[in-house]
Amino acid sequence: MGAIPTQRETASHLSGAPPHTAGASAQDLGRAHVALLGSSLAPGAARAMVRAALADWCARGLPGTEQLTEHLAADVLVVVSELVTNAVVHAGTDVEVVCLMEETGTVVVETADHHPSRAPRGGDDETPADPSEYGRGLRLVAALSEAWGITYRPGTKTVWARLPAARRETAADAGGDAVTAEQIEAYAGREGPWTGHGPDARPWTEAAGEPPADGGCADAADTGLRGLRDREWLGRGALSFLAEASDLLAGQLDEDLVASLTGQLVVPRLADWCGVWLEDESLGRGAWSDEPGTAVGARLARVWHAGEGHIDELRLALEKDPPRARDPWRSGPVGHPWPGDALGTQGAALAYRLVAGGRPLGTLVIGRSGPAGFPDEITGLVEDLSRRVALAIGAARQYARQATISAVLQRGLLPGAVAEIPGVRSALVYEPRDKGGPSGDFYDLFPAGDGRWCFAVGDVQGKGPEAAVVIGLARPWLRLLAREQYGVPDVLDRLNQLLLDDATEAADAAARALVAVGGPPVAPGDGPQTRFLSLLYGELEPFEGGVRCTLASAGHPLPLLLAPDGAVRAVAAPQTLLGVVEDAAYTSETFELRSGETLLCVTDGVTERRSGSRQFDDGDGLAAALAGCAGLDAGLVAERIRRLVHEFGPRPPEDDLALLVLQAE
Hints:
By secondary structure, this protein is α+β, with helices and mostly antiparallel strands. Helix content is 33%, strand content 24%. The chain is built from 15 helices and 26 strands. The strands form 6 sheets. The protein has a 6-stranded antiparallel sheet. Strands 15, 16, 17, 18, 21 and 22 form a 6-stranded mixed sheet that branches. Strands 10-9-13-12-11 form a 5-stranded antiparallel sheet. Strand 19 and strand 20 form a beta hairpin. Helix 1 (42-60) packs antiparallel against helix 2 and helix 2 runs antiparallel to helix 3 (138-144). It starts with 9 loop residues before the first strand and ends with a strand.
């Protein structure tokens, strides 16, 4: 693995700086390297390696270490943790970690795994691969680093990030001293208490007497690293921090992920630890009990501590002593008991209610060791952050509610199972483009009585609730009319009239509502729209040696029949969409599906799959694809067509996909 990717090989994500290039000499760099097993222990081991490396470089006085601040060291630890976690979770292989320091004080972190076909995604639509599962932590990496990118080599994928000292106020500029090796070991690593500040700071030992009461920040409120860190953050500007936090939280659709990101934003920048409680909104304002140590409908979703060894003990302590009941609309922080049994130190803790849209959603509790507590600027900054956290949690919950409703609605619009037909093998592919909402495509395969089975593949104009309304009308009526012994043309005639009548009633109701409120006349295109439906509907009657099939296509892609010798032909004539023309008269085609013959029915998500200006069915592409399936059983035919559709373009399909394969045994 090369230590530094070249610009030619790298897909970069920039924030106003060039990508990492091979311009620095190896002699000018501090370099540390470790190879780790791809397990849950890897992130912690990588952080330990980086802490040890930074401490060693500071002790040796390497060029660039004079620019190393505690804030930069903390950011480096966060970045290496996120990159290694991404590699372990999403590549699943061993991980190699490299940390470099340049003469300018810039720190470069690289992680390499051995699964280059799966690229982590950080929000850029132009990522080489676009898997459904990806590492969300790279958004945090992007927020902290000057630049980051991905390098591909045979058998290896490397993700790197640059964290420059130039963007940060140096220790001397802030009125303090550069970070020392001992401070890196004791403070950034949180491996033990330390005493003193500035160049005299050192890890606490028994020979030094009792450790300071704050467990590591004695007398640091004004001149130590704690005061330096506060000045750095406030000097860079609260608005900059809040803007980055807002961007990081925006669009997160999981409330637990919001809680996790909140912990990483707060610790160690603004506090030594934090906890996030999330409440059940359905229980209202009484979610917290007045009894000590009990909480009703609230759960401790996230605990974060700068010293990872304290997290489990801190969680137990916070669960025993949750925030007390208070007016959820009172702004500002209130005091919270310090978990001394867990931390063994003294400090200050504050609780912020998380309220959005007039609804109490939870509580954010932060803690800082030492007698000085929180400066007013920090408490105000966290209060502003808590409002953004509350908005993100509220948005995530709203999305979860809508996704649940959509999932329930989608289950109601599709059959629980497709019928098994004697002498016929069937296979189905159904892939809605929007996994969280109702699709515009639908299918059905059901018994109609008297030795008859009926099938349907349809596509509604539009998506979402409007499409769900049409499907909710069409599918039950198809079953009802089929079981009442209506033939294929009669079923389409009646369904066409039903859609037209329903659209007329909707338009009349909207007009009456406008007249009742004295509203303006409806402009063309603003009122209820006609609900168009393309539908392929057919009836199957098995007989000895084959299946008699009667079908009709109303504005739908025509079904294709595959013979055992590979010949393909269309077996229906095109007709008008349903819901368009009053008193349309539909006709049907009848043919026999003989042993070994295959019928393919698809929606336009297959035929109109795009790759640039080309479509999948250009030049009878679907027929050619089906011809290549000769000799395959129904399941393999469906899977091969699905795969060819996905592979036709570089991006995922942009429309719903539905296809039904019927094959005579």
